[in-house]
Amino acid sequence: MALTQRLEFRQSQSLVMTPQLMQAIKLLQLSNLDLTTFVEEELERNPLLERASDEPAGGEAPAEAAEFNDSDESGGSNADETGTREAFEPGQEEWMSRDLGTRAEIEQTLDTGLDNVFSEEPAEAAARKAQDAAPSVYTEWGGGASGDEDYNLEAFVAAETTLSDHLAEQLAVAFSAPAQRMIGQYLIDLVDEAGYLPADLGQAAERLGASQQDVEEVLAVLQKFDPPGVCARNLSECLAIQLRELDRYDPAMQALVEHLDLLAKRDIAGLRKVCGVDDEDIADMIGEIRRLNPKPGMKFGTSRLQTMVPDVYVRPGPDGGWHVELNSDTLPRVLVNQTYYSELSKKIGKDGDKSYFTDALQNATWLVRALDQRARTILKVATEIVRQQDGFFTHGVAHLRPLNLKAVADAIQMHESTVSRVTANKYMATNRGTFELKYFFTASIASADGGEAHSAEAVRHHIKQLIDSEDPSAILSDDTIVERLRASGIDIARRTVAKYREAMRIPSSVQRRRDKQSALGNVLSTASSDRSRNTEPA
């Protein structure tokens, strides 16, 4: 067969990831805080972008700004049982229907089971609250020092001391050798907000070029720092440090600290056997453990939690449906300064400058359109979610329907990846609370009678209701819960019930029986002591 060369014309379609397309995809999945930061950076970078004011001073805004502001003001939609009425034309770009990948699911964390062991006494909590609320002499003086408008009280407020700063001050006094200070500062930098170090410090010696013995010697000194229990590597070590500080770390208490798993399970009989003490002593020891602080670093300054701002509001409509609207406070308002560009284009003579401002104009125009398209897409997806989950908004979580990305994507004629990006890091404020958009997407559980499937979230709610209403003398096992769910028309396996129960941090039936019997015994003991005091002769 002879090889020849020839020219052929072929027509094909392919998706090209242009910088503008990648920017639009990035904007779609950003949260409102990240979007604000991104727009602020673009305003500093692009001279043709301006922040649109809420009340423009005379004149009309350019076409790009008017188009974007229209979506903000009229960004509402009504969703009822019969259908959806939208206040805008979709105008969907081609890239919104392409397959651009999916997002990874967030992994669930495990509960340690010791959260309820440590609880602050009511008297201590009241004293702590009163101490925090009491104004200091300095703040009283600062509040009435001057009535001048230029007076700034914040200039006199001391910076909040962090745990790292507090430990660093003690480090400067505890060590004089530079090598030990370097090791100590490295370990302090590893301490988390609760005051704990990582369980494995083997890499610390390797990275610092020191021996493991040197690291252990420095760590032993750090564990004597204030607050007691800081720089521990686990909960047992943290409690042991505090007990040594109180001179209460005897062999019985050591055995108790080393078997905290029994304490978490409230296995008093097992603890009494391990520690070798009687009922009265084990009760006193558990009381001492409760008075310790399992997170000693939390009383110092930590990073402030930012308030979650919803992206979408859902309100009851006058016609019995639901009105869906965007939160205009989370939508950045930017416009393109066409006047400035027109003036510059007349004065610029260099080709390089003209090319720069032409690119700036294109980027600014694309950003405004991308923000507009992002707002419209979020509203469209949220409206369809409200339409699909109308029973949840009307009757509650028990009526939450099974829903997946494909159902919403098919209804609004978008791709699943687009819906996945829209629902990421977005929140909806409803009459039943504020929820992430991904909350409304739940797996389906088959019905026992072959009817409509049940939502996994609704099944979890049903399980919690059964456990909350159970009789202390007849604790429901997982098998009993399965039987009652099947009687209600929910076909579910026992392992699924156990998985949902553990995800809601509900203990097993054995643990619940111990807890409720212990609580009942305390109530009866208190009532008996009250009766004995009332019957004593005066």
Automatic annotation (TrEMBL):
Gene3D superfamilies: Homeodomain-like, RNA polymerase sigma-54 factor, core-binding domain. The lineage of its organism: Bacteria, Pseudomonadati, Pseudomonadota, Alphaproteobacteria, Hyphomicrobiales. GO terms for biological process: DNA-templated transcription initiation. PANTHER family: RNA POLYMERASE SIGMA-54 FACTOR (PTHR32248). This is RNA polymerase sigma-54 factor. Residues 46-97, 508-538 are annotated as: Disordered. Residues 153-340 form the RNA polymerase sigma factor 54 core-binding domain. Keywords: DNA-binding, DNA-directed RNA polymerase, Nucleotidyltransferase, Sigma factor, Transcription, Transcription regulation, Transferase. GO terms for molecular function: DNA binding; DNA-binding transcription activator activity; nucleotidyltransferase activity; sigma factor activity. Pfam families: Sigma54_AID (PF00309), Sigma54_CBD (PF04963), Sigma54_DBD (PF04552).
